[in-house]
Amino acid sequence: MADTPNVGIEDYRFGFNFPDSSVYTTGKGLSEEVVRQISRQKEEPEWMLNYRLRALEAFRRKAMPNWGADLKAINFDEIVYYARPTDKQSRSWEELPESIRETYDRIGIPEAERKFLAGVGAQYDSEVVYHNLKKELEAKGVIFSDPESAVREHPEIVRKYFGTVVPYGDNKFAALNSAVWSGGSFIYVPKGVTVDIPLQAYFRINLENFGQFERTLIIADEGSFVHYIEGCTAPVYTTDSLHSAVVEIIALPGARVRYSTIQNWSTDVYNLVTKRAVAHENATVEWVDGNIGSKRTMKYPSVYLMGEGAHGEVLSIAFAGNGQEQDTGGKMVHMASNTTSTITSKSISKASGIASYRGLLKVAPGLNNVKSRVVCDALLLNDESATNTYPYMEIESDDVSIEHEARVSRIGEDQLFYLQSRGFDEDEASGLIVNGFLDPLVKQLPMEYAVELNRLIELEMEGSVG
Amino acid sequence: MELVIRDLHASIENQPILKGIDLTVKTGETHALMGPNGSGKSTLANVLMGHPKYEVTGGSVKLDGHELLDLEPDQRSLAGLFLAFQYPVEIPGLTVGKFLKRASELRSGEEKLKVSSFIRELRETMDFLEMDQNFINRYLNEGFSGGEKKRMEILQMLTLKPVFAVLDETDSGLDIDALKIVSRGVRRLSGPEFGSLVITHYQRILDYLKPDFVHVMYNGRIVVSGGGELAATLEAQGYDWVREEHGEEVSHG
What we know:
The complex is a heterodimer.
Chain A: H1 12-15, E1 24-25, H2 32-41, H3 46-61, E2 83-84, H4 98-107, H5 111-117, H6 127-140, E3 143-145, H7 147-153, H8 155-161, H9 172-180, E4 184-189, E5 199-200, E6 215-220, E7 225-230, E8 242-243, E9 246-251, E10 256-263, E11 270-279, E12 284-291, E13 296-299, E14 302-305, E15 311-320, E16 325-334, E17 340-349, E18 354-363, E19 370-380, E20 386-395, E21 400-410, H10 413-420, H11 426-442, H12 447-461
Parallel strand pairs in A: 4-6, 5-7, 6-9, 7-10, 8-11, 9-11, 10-12, 11-13, 11-14, 12-15, 13-16, 14-16, 15-17, 16-18, 17-19, 18-20, 19-21
Antiparallel strand pairs in A: 1-2, 3-4
Helix pairs in contact in A: 2-3, 3-9, 7-8, 10-11, 11-12
Chain B: E1 2-12, E2 15-26, E3 30-34, H1 41-49, E4 55-63, E5 66-67, H2 73-78, E6 81-84, E7 91-95, H3 96-108, H4 115-128, E8 139-140, H5 146-160, E9 164-168, H6 176-189, E10 195-199, H7 203-209, E11 213-218, E12 221-226, H8 229-237, H9 240-246
Parallel strand pairs in B: 3-10, 3-11, 6-9, 9-10
Antiparallel strand pairs in B: 1-2, 1-4, 4-5, 7-8, 11-12
């Protein structure tokens, strides 16, 4: 009901506010000097500095997107592009507002993880676990590090692949990321190696993992398999209003890569992310992309199907609460015969929230036996909430099978009444309906995600149906 | 306990449907409510449960002395009222097992029911209703046939064990075997702790349920009440005599 204590996600921004304790920052605004300083701080080789500088030029040249979410409020001069966090713990758990701690409790995040998320956990308890994991990975020849280390220690791999999937000139925000990137993950899986447990950034003790301009590069060599999990469903503390990441995946012949994210940025963050993969012959790339937080998100994970037998998949879940705009979807670009792809999108809009599906399906000329299926389901919780569907298609071959389904449903008075007549109050009833709507997708998520997502939706539903 | 309906008025979109219903159902009793289409039977069922589409414009409904009309539908449910829907709603993605377990927890006030004993009882009840156990893992009412939905309503009723149940045309569209099973389900609850109001068009379910009282609703009011034999009269003679006595055109149910 309306008067239950509300610890909904919309309140996080009021709670997360810490004095800036960073040791080193470039200050507000962006210039060539700022980029040079970042590169110097990271002790980068010249080729990476030059790459950054070229990207900076592209960023200046590129126009803002004139489609998608409303980005007018972004002021590039007010953003701090680089701040190196202290190596030691910079905040204490006790400094966290009660409401945040309570929310973590209710979502059921383990305390160690919470501390990490809140930026208080330099001494994350899984250190031992990670060390064991690291040994195992090293024995198999798997490289899993932050990208800065990779630039220093594995320049031959980084130079070969960095920026090849998402060139710095791709779009304004990819250019920005390429100029000022910091943190993220680098993964290389050698030929034929299967990484059994999902790799997650928070295994690593690095405060820069969830930075605002993170950069992730994953190379899965022939016949290998890896599942990478980015972030976590709990709200992520940030002082910054812009998160602009770039993720590049290269799945070499026969490899399979699964990449899962559920972002839950606080609701003042612009989340503008470029995620793209290339899948070579018989390779598979799967994106699981959940968007719950942020003020505006624009994100369309893509797979370029470059070799015969390649398969691409996007599962997209978006929750647009009051004042939020989730402009999400996926892109499949078929560049070879006998390739298949599916995009499944489920979105929920609440209060004044807007969830838009935006997708591109492209089939190059002269191809045979290309199959693609796109399914978009939208659920509206109130009269005020809105959903849009923008399915773009550029099909230049004839031997193509394409299915496209789009449905919009409204949470029904009769459904609510039915559940209420069985003793569920209105909030719980609407939570059950929403979770039911997502259930077919949630089943495909990693277990921890599924549980957390269900709880988050329940929290979001408290006193929310009008 | 008693469910006491007094001078109940309700309308939909400013159109009066219920025009002064008086009816008392006690535990231990089975009441049948009959009447031609459009007389307001289903409206009464929905108003008792609290459907937001209807506006109550007067009267009272008391369960064990407490006013139900002030309560939300979920509170009415927890107070012991149950409605078996004429058209059960589909809830995609919500499994029958999860739904029934949580509903039972809400009813019992227990934070978490033991899964093993809950499942055992559920399976036993499903056997009793000759339902396939696979229904536990299916989504609630999604893709169910008409008869399966009706059995699911009875399964919910047997699981939640209400004090008063309103069955809104639960027999409609059922073949004779399904009808027997549904009747068996209702009879299972019957006893000194349970009262029911069975809305129907047909004599045949009443052959199994043997109501203590039969009421005929017409134009928003209960116009005739009698014992079980009244149902046979209605079956034989239709509602024409009701129409004649109450002066307006009555469509045949």
